[in-house]
Amino acid sequence: MHFSEEWHRQWDRLEENSGVEAGLPAFLDKAQLIESNMIDVTEQLKLAFGKLIKLMRLNFKYTIDDLASKASVDAGELLQIEENPLYEPQLRTVYQLAQRFNLPIKRLTMLAGLTQERDPQFTQEACRFAASSKCISTVTAEEREALNHFVAVILEKK
Amino acid sequence: MEITEAHLKHLGTGELMKASLMDDITDDHLDMWKATWLPVIQEYRDAFEAQNKPKAEWPYDLRWNWDAKILPYRGQLGLKAYCIICDSKLQGMMQVNFITHGKLKEHVGKPLVYIDFLSTAPWNRRELVQKPVFGRVGSILVQTAVQLSFDEDFKGRIGLSSLPQSNAFYREAFGMTELGPNANYPLLTDFELTAEQAAKLITS
User: Fold this and answer.
1) Is B78 on the interface with A (CB under 8 A)?
2) Per the CB < 8 Å rule, is A19 touching B126?
3) Contact B65/A36, CB-based, under 8 Å?
4) What pLDDT is stored for residue B160 in this prediction?
């Protein structure tokens, strides 16, 4: 089977600019995926959780200690949540943060990796958010926009 | 091993250059991957680390280990691997399986050729180099998967999970149906080519 030269000429530019890489085996062999170093979705969700908490904190102009005090959680654990994507927070901490920031606990536990429940569209938004925000010491206008969009997704307004 | 003549487009000169499409990835090809792709890939990984670029923004296949993909499964029924050699260099690799079924509603219960992995050499990729060397590596490999599908009597049906940068190519050039984010790896998008879409490709 050969595509015509005309077909190739029509799509050469798109192929050059967009790339063609594809990759996820049909059979999810965990060992093969680990070998392949595919990014695990749980890790992506936790990254989104950490960045959400950090950006919400910065948006309210809280220090780590301020938030720890207002949410009645441990400051050390907050630091782990924000900086360590492999950290698994306590359910109570996630609950307290949900209350403090007025966010649905179900979505936050999903982000924190405390539940196996999956919602593909929500997960995609979370991964996009995790990849987009750079998270420095103050919230930039772009980060605020990304944060507002993601919070709207969490609240199921989008 | 079967070798078919193909032609890659040299992006510097616009010339079509003879290439060999092989229906296997041998130990020699894996040695070429290690010797020629990996050092270039490592340079980009080092540069991304130095720039503090989040790993989520790196091209996903930069960490792929083709030894791990090919060696344990060599000789297994239902799996095939292909590569393209041009200018004495390894230009692209693909592994497919043809023991899976589609997810698209009209494909439920129907077998298709599924592209497990497809990657082109780092020097051919615009997201990595300013002047990529060869074009058409990906389209030739995908055509090969469609041909295999016809050979297996699957009427040209294929499926794959596209890396984010490649979505437009599968959607527009091949006219594949987009199924949405993969349930387990949602930054990848699932695509399938129906028999009707494959038939249009043959006549295009």
Assistant:
1) no
2) yes
3) yes
4) 94
Q: Which residues of A touch B188 (CB under 8 A)?
A: 23-24
The pLDDT of residue A119 is 74
Arithmetic mean of pLDDT, A6-10: 87
User: With contacts defined as CB-CB under 8 Å, which chain A residues touch B165?
Assistant: 18-19, 21
Stretch A93-109: mean pLDDT, rounded? 93
Q: How far is CA B160 from the centre of its chain?
A: 9
Over range A33-47, report the average pLDDT: 61
Q: Which of A147, A52, A143, A48 is nearest to A98 (CA)?
A: A52
Whether A116 contacts chain B with CB within 8 A: no
Task: Give the C-alpha separation, B202 to A4, whole Å.
Answer: 9
Please state the rounded mean pLDDT for residues A6-26: 83
Query: pLDDT-derived band of residue B175, with 50, 70 and 90 as boundaries?
Result: very high
Residues of A in contact with B115 (CB under 8 A): 22
B38 in reach of chain A (CB within 8 A):
no
Measured between beta carbons, which residues in chain B are less than 8 angstroms from residue A36?
63-65, 68-69, 117
- pLDDT above 50 (res A33): no
Give pLDDT, residue A27.
53
DSSP chain B: --EEEEEEEETTT--EEEEEEES---HHHHHHIIIIIHHHHHHHHHHHHHTT--GGGS-GGGG--HHHHHGGGTT-TTEEEEEEEETTEEEEEEEEEEEEE--SGGGTT-EEEEEEEEEE-GGG-TTT-SS--EESHHHHHHHHHHHHHHHTTSTT-EEEEE-GGGHHIIIIIS-PEEEEE-SSSTTSEEEEE-HHHHHHHHH-
- Bridge partners of B18, per DSSP, are B7
How high does pLDDT run on average in chain B?
A: 89
Say if residue A138's pLDDT is above 70.
no
Distance CA B27, CA A103 (A): 53
Distance CA B128, CA B48 (A): 11
